[in-house]
Amino acid sequence: MDKTIELVNSVKDVQAMPSVIVRVLNVMKKPTVSMKELGDIVMYDQSLTIKILALVNSAYYGFSQQISSISIALSLLGMIKVKNIIVAVAMKPMMSTAGDKELWKHSIRVAAGCEYLANLTKIMDPDEAFIAGFIHDIGKIVLNASNPRMYEQVIANVNSSQEDLLDVEKKFFDSDHVKTGSLLAKRWQLPILLANVVSYHHAPSLSSIPVPCNLVCFVDKLMQINYNQNQLDKDFLKTLFIDLEDVDELRSVIMQKAEFLIAELT
Ligand SMILES: [Fe+2]
Ligand SMILES: [Fe+2]
Q1: Within 10 Å of residue 98's Cβ, how many Cβ atoms?
Q2: Confidence check: pLDDT of 189 > 80
Q3: Residues forming CATH 1.10.3210.10 domain(s) in the chain
Q4: How far is the CA of 27 from the centre of ligand 1 (A)?
Q5: Which of 49, 127, 171, 216 has the most CB atoms lying inside 10 A of its own CB?
Q6: Which ligand sits nearest to residue 139's alpha carbon?
Q7: How far is CA 235 from CA 153, 213, 249, in A?
Q8: 3-16+93-265 belongs to which homologous superfamily?
């Protein structure tokens, strides 16, 4: 059997999406979904209620008044933002296991960066940009879950040798997180835009939907812990009308925003 299929098949609980995400996605699919229906799901889950209230009161969104009711929180944030937050919270356990322990934080940082840049440049919808940034590395969940120790070794290797991550993954797993992610996106029946980002965030020029893939590819590099300005795509930066000399400042603004989110959602 193909190694990628074998890896994805070996992680049964990853293949089954967390039930709260399935519930939220199903509710959102209905043409006339009310805030109340979404509110019922959120309220059913106590930790989600607490996190959403903390978040809506945090500096990330910057509302001026203190909000203590979940229905007001939902109407202020809007349904799509709430859905994104639910996905980010629900996927935290599977993204914080052994292996790549930083995966969830990295995903939040890329999500916050994509949302921020989409808002600033208007190249795509900010809410869609957030979720695209958040899910880009789902293939790593499969590698982590199938062999956490081996994935730790992959990361140690990349950090010490500066070798390409996908190449090192291939050496250890005979597959990589783009391949496992693409298959997982299919099994999860993710929308085309998100599946594309998962498959092409390391090679955006090959995608049929280049804008979100380019954005995620750019922000992914920008939010690395050992970030190096030389690795950024300067041509893409030009299309955003952002000067290279402003990038470091941009990075620290995004980092700060992402840390608010991480603190409230942890
Ligand atoms: Fe990646
Ligand atoms: Fe990444």
Answers
A1: 12
A2: yes
A3: 3-16+93-265
A4: 30
A5: 216
A6: 1
A7: 34, 14, 19
A8: Hypothetical protein af1432 (1.10.3210.10)
